[in-house]
Amino acid sequence: MTATDPRGPMSLPLCRIRSVHRDVNSIDWASLTHAYGSAADVPGLIGDLRSADGGIRSAALYELYGNIFHQGSRYEASAYAVPFLLELVAERTTPARQEVIRPLADLAVGHRTYHLATGFPVTELRNAMAEVPEETWQRWSQAMKDWYDVVGTGQRQPVPLDKAERRLLATQHELAAYDAVRAGVLVLLSCLDDADGEVVGEAIQALAWFPEEAAAIRPALLDIAADEQQPLRVAGAALVALGPLGGRCPQPVADLLNRNLACTDPHLRWSAAVAWALLRGKRVPDSAVAELRAWAVAGNRGNEETIWEAHPADVALDVLDRVAEPVAEQVRADLVAAALAEQPTSNWHNHFNVVLDRAFPQMEPDHGRTFEELTAPQRAVVVWLTRNPHVFGSSGPQGPLRQYGLPTTHEALCAYAGTQ
Description:
about 0% strand
């Protein structure tokens, strides 16, 4: 299939790829688009990933993250690049294969830490896609191609689609990339017996997001998680991956999770608690909630990160938001109170990035909530700001407040809280 196929990337075949041998130049890359217009540069960048020179590979990855995965977005060319990245992963002679597996996982689901507490919403995406006729997709895609052609010459022109249409078109590209990576599940599974723990760890992270392939993936993850010879970080990653993968929790899985939840290694306990919460939801065992709470209360002390590229305290709190809301709200209230008690000598902007992130998890700028509709820790932040007008200056909290949909001046914030 070439890029001139009018069906577009949504019709890329969902086959089971074991290995791929395709000519990268068989795709009309110039007719495809990425974040900066024509995708003509993509095949050269993919080729550079075969280089023995780490600097060349690093530069190529930097460019690919900037064009087919720009700030987490996927584009028309993204799904077409995936089979060639899978080919690199399938070839054991490819240098530093973990460097190629990582962008495959990102192309599939975006920023993975955003989905670790909930799983990737593939069903919702498929349902959204089904509501739009094929001819509409083609019209929107052509309109955006024409727009890229114009702005690529330096001319200014309004984007031809409204916000909702652009969001749906972005969803199309996201799902196309997701399914392209899903077609390579067998390739990723073959990485789990690699001698390099980094390759195994990245493959585990990539495999976690495909519940539709759980029958093939779950047994491999269980084998790794139960293998006492595995490095602790790899075994822990396999435990966590059982959560986003979803599905039933039969007794052998429950026994495995309970055994790790009671072990002496803190990261295995954390991993088991996260998996328990994602698999059982609000029916999560009290012991898992207690473990998550202990991590969340500790906060970001130190710079340690998990194999999932997120701090375990942040993940624990996000998971508690989903499965034990009263516990999460109390933890957030305590963390917010502690943060507000700190008095930075300057740069209230950065300080309130932290404060608001703890108080307003996943709050959209257009949330439209009244003061009374905020949670207790959220109201506490607003009240504190009304009582401390001195923080509103050139390096004040205005930017973070705007990001979380709150008034950005002291006067407006007082009116919002009803304290004028």
